[in-house]
Amino acid sequence: MALLLCLGLTAALARGCLHCHSNFSEKFSFYRHHVNLKSWWVGDIPVSGSLLTDWSQDTMKELHLAIPAEITREKLDRVANAVYQKMDQLYQGKMYFPGYFPNELRAIFREQVHLIQNAIIESRIDCQRHCGIFQYKTISCTNCTDSHVVCFGYNCESSAEWETAVRGLLLYINKWHKQDSNTRHRPSSMHRTTPAFLISPSFTCLEPPHLANLTLENASECLTQH
């Protein structure tokens, strides 16, 4: 059984993953400015314009992820290039019959959402190929800032590797807890977000109140039971 413990942080503002790509503004500015040339029916123009204007915000609404929306730059490039290719092909055509153009935009939008979901989840699943704490760089889709994801992989090939992995996890948790305690005692500092697995009902043994008396054996038992 391969399980993941994800320590991602969730930001507050919703921007949209594709919005974080370097070519997004240029591409979507072109799409919006040329939307009036793509349909014989004038009613398609405001509908299509609204779809393009709200693209980023609507993307975040439709992701429905149980984990923070954080994507690697490599995967963001793949998603963006796939979307731009579809959009460019759509814009190369002549004027379309009523209803066709906004329907095609919706189809590209839905495909983009699925690509982003898969990209984010695939990176988390890749964690299971590691043993112990693993970290990879990402971009936060919520505010387009550089971020990183720290997770715990269960793919250990021996009991010695597993013991080392659990020790590393305990060191990481205790280090985080000490840093968080120091932050809480600074009135001018913002509180750090608690890693997701520390507040999960399935891992109550790893919550901060229990860390002081947590042993290697207890942590190992807690991890292997879930």
UniProtKB/TrEMBL annotation:
Keywords recorded for this protein, A-Z: Signal
Lineage: Eukaryota, Metazoa, Chordata, Craniata, Vertebrata
Name of protein: IZUMO family member 4
InterPro entries tied to this protein: IZUMO (IPR029389), Izumo_fusion (IPR052868)
Cited Pfam families: IZUMO
GO cellular component, one term: nucleus
Signal peptide interval: 1-16
Coiled-coil parts of chain: none
